[in-house]
Amino acid sequence: MLLAVLSGFILAALAPWLTRSLQDKAGWVLALLPAGLFVYFLSWVPVVVAEGAQVVAYPWIPGLDISLTMLVDGLSLLFALLISGIGTFIIIYAGGYLHGHEYLPRFYAIMFSFMAAMLGVVLSNNLITLFVFWELTSITSYLLIGFHHEEKESRWYALQGLIVTVGGGLALLAGLIMLALAGGSFELHEILASEELRDYGFYAGMVILILLGTFTKSAQVPFHFWLPNAMAAPTPVSAFLHSATMVKAGVYLMARLNPGIGGTELWLYALGIFGALTMFTGSFMALRSTGLKAVLAYTTVMALGTLTMLIGIGTEQAIIAAMTFLLAHALYKAALFMLAGALDHETGTKDITRLGGLRQLMPITFITACVAALSLAGLPPLFGFIAKELMFEATLQAPLISTFTTVLAVVSAIMIVAMAAVFSLRPFLGPLKETPKKPHEAPLSMLIGPVVLAGLSLVFGLAGFLPATALVGPAVAAVHGAPLDFDLYLWHGINLPLMLSVLAVVAGLLLFWQWDRVLAVYRRMTFIDRFGPERGYEKLMDGLVWLAAWQTRLLQNGYMRNYLLTIVLTTVGLTGWTFFVHTGSSAPLGTIEFAVHEIVVAGLVVLGAIVASVTSSRLGAVATLGMVGFGIALLYVFFSAPDLGTTQIMVETLTVILLVLVLFRLPAFQNLSSAAARLRDAVVALSLGGLMTLLILAVNAVEVTDRISDQLVAWSYPEAHGRNIVNVILVDFRALDTLGEIFVVGLAAIGVYAMIRLRAEDRKK
Amino acid sequence: MSPEVALPVIIPFIAGALSLIFYKSHAAQRWIGVIGTGALLLASIVLLYNTYTQGILVMAMGNWPAPFGIVLVSDLLGAIMTVLAAIMGFGVALYSLPTISRDHEAFGYYPLTHLLLAGVCGAFLTGDVFNLYVWVEVLLVASFALLILGGERAQMEGAIKYVALNLLSSILLLVAVGLTYGLTGTLNMADLAVKLPQVEDQGMVTVVGMLYMVSFAIKAGAFPLFFWLPASYHTPPVAVSALFAGLLTKVGVYALFRFFTLLFNQDVDYTHEILLWMAGFSMITGVLGAAYHYEIRRILSFHIVSQIGYMIMGLALFTPLAIVGGVFYIMHHIIVKANLFLVAGAVYFMRGSYELKEIGGLWRTRPWLGLLFLIPALSLAGLPPLSGFFGKYIIIRAGVEAESWGIVAVALVVGLLTLYSMIKIWAEAFWKAQPEEHADRAAAFEKRLNDHSLMLMVIPILSLAAITVFIGLGAQPIYELADAAAEQLLDPSHYIRAVLGEAP
Q1: CA gyration radius, chain B
Q2: Residue A743 domain-assigned?
Q3: I need a surface site. Which of A94, A350, A721, B116 has the fewest CB within 10 A?
């Protein structure tokens, strides 16, 4: 099972090479993998039907509770079959659609990675592994959407999809971690068995975080805008993303978690209302679209909304409807997308208003499109009809939000019927229109998928027991938490759902008849583009760039004095505040006895410092700084550290000489800062100095009985054979420090030498 | 007594000294560069292995027993950091061969690099607070010299800010060391861990702790003290930038981890709360700075600030899992961040610019480089299954468990913004077509690039990318290592016993 999931990644690594060596047959040969996977997953169906869910364990990172354990039950199998089955046709199709394209090798590599990631999402039993695959689908789909990457629009839309889905993904990560904490495990089958999930203290927060993840991924309002924009991708990608993968991941996760965290009012309202709104938005936007792919993209939004709504309603009826709808949608949507691609590929345009009269030139495309579109519209005898009837039944019986969902469902259905008719009839009927390319029937590689999938829509519609027992039944059992006994068939007798269906069809056909006028009405409704959530996204991104620019110019402003000011103030603030709070005014400050000569020298040092910072004469500043240094040297001498004193005097002398030498090369002195700024600087400098003084006084008051220096003094002569304790410390006890400092001096020498010489050589050139 | 503890300091010292001896021979210096850093890598791996199998190792310098002399101590955190430093050193030594100009070689590039590594390793391994100050000085002066090597105007401007602000940090460190000695009468870290809790005025201990915190936070490039980093990191040759990006701030982070687990653990509610705020603001300000810029090296520099926030967050939460996350994050980050600079350098040698608006078209011509960029870039953004994801996951899980929602939210959003700027580099440098007006320069650079030097650049990039993938897919052993390191950090008695013996 693990190999089945990961085989996609392995093939992805080989795909570029295989594609090049197989040439024209690449699509057909590469499709053997998903086809094989399909058969493999099919072989699991009897097992799951007979014995229920299976858990196949593989270890990964046990320390972090991350495993590669797979959960095989009706739900994951349904998805795995869709992914591998539709994937097979997509791979074949891409071979025809992108025939001879220079990027076909890397396209296949990314496509197989994407497919494997998708399988991983639906089969993972471990929450973190699921998330790993989840994010992988985001990033691989980013690369797929941006396939035509030299077009700016492509890059922009790819980024949009990525930001929206990964952004939601991050919320999801937090939600999943909370879910694991609530359930006491990271393994789905254990979490879902837990009874305490709904009583978790942060239940609402957890659900909202998880839903942020699933709503963004599954393009629910208000995050739906990225999905139609993802049409920038080549058609095989769109077909795959929309029918069985990517966007269905969110639906999958909601269905998966439904038995564990569903069934609350929050769940019902969040999924029911947002789902219904999404369903309506999708149909509403589909009706105004004239691009082949755009129409389909918005009907995908509609389908995702429907599924979310049904999962939210969560009754037995709703779950059955959801799983049936899922299967029906995957079949017709993949077929329709591939047909749209075929039309585009063979005529050179995807604008419906520029297509017409193709029925004789592309007869197979025409017939297949009609069959698939009938399923989309929900007409008998297709599988889509069963799904739609079930959906109406579920919304009619929904708790609390029944009216709301039913009204929206019927309105959406009307618009979808219209668009199904537009899609399947407009390009084919009427007079033949001029197109950029001379149209002819698409090659076999591009037709086999749609024909088979549309055929399945028909077969499943006529023989509802087939999917009911093998596919939908086990999936419903997984989503509901327990098996349900039901059948799928076309004729339910004359009841309210049937009446609603008839209403939808009649009204929908009316809309179709008047579609050109509908478009004219839409054209006047410009507010959709001006105030839609996509504007929100753009505003957010603009705001981000603005904020980034503002804060960066504020912080990293390029002025050294501001940097120093900030750092010093932070130091004084943090340390001073801590000193104030933690020791208070009660801190015992040591008292120090002063002798007169000490006070005089200290006074000179202070005076020197003040003059150095006030004077406008450079020479004066250097001289007074020298005074500070020599004063400190004297203080060392007073406190019986003569070697320190001599060192200090040498350093000071050298510094003063060097400074004076440099002074004559500097430009004339200018006073650039205002009096206020200088005052501010003085206050800041004094605060740091004052803080240091306080700290030293406070530490001075601490009595320490056993300092290591006592032992060092004792060892100095007998052990280290030296009478000067300072020397012994420098060259023996702490010789490593000295060695390090020697290197510091050496390094400085190299640096200065290089700085001077390398520049000099520049100048020579 | 474990002499292997001293090797990671001695080897680069010797290599540095040898390079100085052969100052005139560039070929010899190149060989010493590769062999010296290679030996350092071997020695550090041996050290890590021994530390993992035998426990904390101690080497008393000059055979003066702790706490009276200076000891070098290798606990797991120190040994891990040393290995990472050695990996960086070796990788950058290879990368330097084709990318460092003759002028740089002539003026001490190699000896400076060796001594920088010695300083870094010394800082990771010392068990003495004053000795730590010395190593910090060594690496500061070495890095300063590397930074101004070349003497370009931009370099000078950046270097002045770099050295001035870092000297301020060093002064604060020195003051803190002095005050520590005044409070306790000792400088040995293990001894301090015993004596600091015995200080009567615990308030003063926290005060001194704050001085250390500020000093190390400047070194680490944390908010609001990071100014020196974005001001300077984009100015030197890219090999130097990579080395700095991988190592220098991490010394500050290492020191924070060391001091705020071993020494200043008395008032965790106060000190680590401050660290948590610092972490949050570092993440935000850093990532926004990166979002603003369009020069690859500047973008990457600001991301260092942001990523430092994640590491400090691990320390600040101060739960066992959070510390594990912090250590894991450091391991991941050093590899990834340095690698991104190396890739940026490769891009430069193909296009002649770091400005995103002037370059493009790399995905069309060099898809393999695109892949090698995506691995560290997506890892930096925390996308699975790469190393960064697991680091982030551990830290975020620790945050959720601690119910620190604010910082968790920040960490998640910053992850998204990190992705945003990585994708910005990707979309501009790789996806976008090469802009016409700069096509001539790009062509000129392409022409100059030969296969041999390209290979020398790609080997380290490829190796670091492989490590990134390995840390991700094979996270279990890395996790175990980080877990063991965190256990040592959270129970200072291991460290104290190893240094001072059974009865402290």
Answers
A1: 22
A2: no
A3: A721
Asked if B145 lies within 8 A of A754 by C-beta distance, the reply is yes
User: Which of A11, A49, A17 lies closest to A32, judged by CA?
Assistant: A11
Q: Between chains, do A754 and B412 touch, taking CB under 8 Å as contact?
A: no
Note down the domain range covering A335: 263-525
Backbone angles phi, psi at A32, to 5 degrees: -60, -35
Q: How far, in Å, CA of B442 to CA of B444, rounded?
A: 5
Least confident of A92-101, A482-491, A567-576, B475-484: A482-491
User: pLDDT for B434-446, tens place per residue?
Assistant: 888 888 888 888 8
How many domains is chain A built from?
A: 1
Instruction: Report the distance separating Cα B245 and Cα B337, nearest Å.
Output: 7
Residues 695-714 of A with CB under 8 A from B: 695-696, 698-700, 702, 704-709, 711-712
Each residue of A19-56: pLDDT tens digit? 888 877 888 888 989 999 999 999 999 998 888 889 99
Chain A positions in Cβ-Cβ contact with residue B302 (cut-off 8 Å):
552
Which of B204, B275, B380 would best serve as a mutation to test chain A binding (most A beta carbons within 10 A)? B204
In chain B, the residue whose alpha carbon lies closest to the alpha carbon of A172 is B412
**Interface pTM, i.e. ipTM:** 0.92
The amino acid that residue A230 corresponds to is A
- Tell me if chain B has a CB within 8 Å of the CB of A540: no
Cα of B54 to nearest chain A Cα, Å: 22
CB contact under 8 A, A578 and B210: yes
A11 pLDDT higher than 50: yes
pLDDT at B504: 40
Please report whether residue A307 resides in a domain: yes
Alpha-carbon distance B175 to B158, whole Å?
26
Asked whether the beta carbons of B500 and B66 are under 8 A apart, the reply is: yes
A551 located within any domain: no
User: Cα A44 from chain centroid?
Assistant: 33
Closest CA to A618 of A661, A658, A663, A673: A663
Beta strands in A497-591 (DSSP E): none
Residue A545, judged by CB atoms within 10 A of its CB (0-12, 13-18, 19+), counts as middle
Radius of gyration of chain A (CA): 38
Indicate if the pLDDT at residue A686 is higher than 80.
Answer: yes
Question: Cβ(B16)–Cβ(B118) under 8 Å?
Answer: yes
Phi/psi at B381 (5° precision): -75, -5
pLDDT score recorded for residue A231: 84
User: What's the CA gap between A301 and A157, in Å, rounded?
Assistant: 17
pLDDT of residue A531: 75
Residues in chain A, how many?
Answer: 765
Residues of A in Cβ contact (< 8 Å) with B108? 750-751, 753-754
pLDDT in tens, B412-424: 999 999 999 999 9
Of B107, B175, B203, the CB nearest to A754: B107
What does the DSSP 8-state code read for residue A354? G
d(CA B125, CA A469): 67
Q: Is the pLDDT of residue A212 over 50?
A: yes
Residue A115 lies in a domain: no
Cα of A319 to nearest chain B Cα, Å: 32
| Amino acid making up residue A273 | I
What's the pLDDT tens digit per position in B70-112? 999 999 999 999 999 999 999 999 999 888 888 788 888 999 9
Whether A512 and A418 have beta carbons less than 8 Å apart is answered as yes
